[in-house]
């Protein structure tokens, strides 16, 4: 009487595990760079959306509208808010037009703002009223994922007319 063998042999199982290990070794670094790229892109797009929203509200309402970090001068800790006026006071922050939370705690947003207030204000005509910049050759905002490598960071600039531009840049 003959028996049909079903299942895997030990050798087949070991070969399958070896192939899976090799594929994972190749795929994980590529996946990590994809995650880093997406984190930086998402944060840059959210910040750009906030600036465009503030500019639009300033033109629509005919008043100054500001984008302020929630936590002092840190844009990457608790996010940012769009408020009426040019002063990021506690009372103005309590009644924002809109707010954004930081999507990932692993994103670093540094800025090149030299106005002592660390916010961006748009005037009634849509132009950027403030801030000043201490080094015009650097981007206004530099966004990257923690531990990123290669060209996975984003530079965000706001022109005097209020136009927001985002470009890829090298990680620190």
Word description of this protein:
The chain is of the alpha+beta class. The chain has a single domain, classed as 3-Layer(bab) Sandwich (minor pseudopilin epsh fold), CATH 3.55.40. It has two helices and nine strands. The strands form two sheets. The protein has a five-stranded antiparallel β-sheet with strand order 3-2-1-5-6, with helices on one face. A hairpin with a 5-residue loop joins β8 and β9. The longest helix has 52 residues. The chain is elongated. The mean pLDDT is 82.
Instruction: Describe the global form.
Output: elongated
Number of E-state strands: 9
User: How would you classify the helix and strand content by structural class?
Assistant: alpha+beta
Which class in CATH terms? Alpha Beta
CATH topology (level 3) name: minor pseudopilin epsh fold
Q: What is the helix tally?
A: 2
The unreliable regions are none
Examine the secondary-structure arrangement and name the CATH architecture.
3-Layer(bab) Sandwich
Describe what is shown at a glance:
By secondary structure, this protein is α+β, with helices and mostly antiparallel strands.
Summarize the SSE layout with pairings.
Blueprint: H1 10-61, E1 65-69, E2 80-84, H2 90-94, E3 98-100, E4 107-111, E5 120-122, E6 128-130, E7 141-145, E8 153-158, E9 164-169
Antiparallel strand pairs: 1-2, 1-5, 2-3, 4-7, 5-6, 7-8, 8-9
Defining traits:
alpha+beta; 4-stranded antiparallel β-sheet; 172 residues; minor pseudopilin epsh fold
């Amino acid at each position: 009487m003959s028996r049909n063998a079903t299942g895997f042999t030990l050798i087949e199982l070991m070969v399958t595990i070896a192939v899976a290990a090799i594929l994972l070794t190749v795929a994980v670094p590529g996946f990590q760079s994809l995650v880093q790229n997406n984190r930086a892109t998402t944060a840059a797009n959210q910040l750009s959306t906030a600036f465009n929203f503030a500019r639009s509200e300033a033109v629509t309402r005919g008043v100054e509208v500001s984008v302020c970090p929630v936590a002092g001068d840190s844009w990457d800790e608790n996010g940012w808010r769009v408020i009426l006026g040019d002063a990021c006071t506690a009372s103005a922050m309590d009644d924002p037009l809109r707010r954004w939370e930081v999507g990932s705690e692993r994103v670093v947003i540094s800025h090149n703002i030299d106005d002592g207030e660390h916010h961006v204000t748009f005037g009634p005509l849509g132009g950027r009223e403030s801030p000043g910049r201490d080094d015009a050759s650097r981007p206004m905002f530099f966004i990257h994922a923690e531990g990123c490598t290669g060209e996975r960071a984003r530079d965000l600039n706001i022109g005097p007319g209020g136009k927001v531009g985002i470009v890829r840049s090298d990680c620190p």
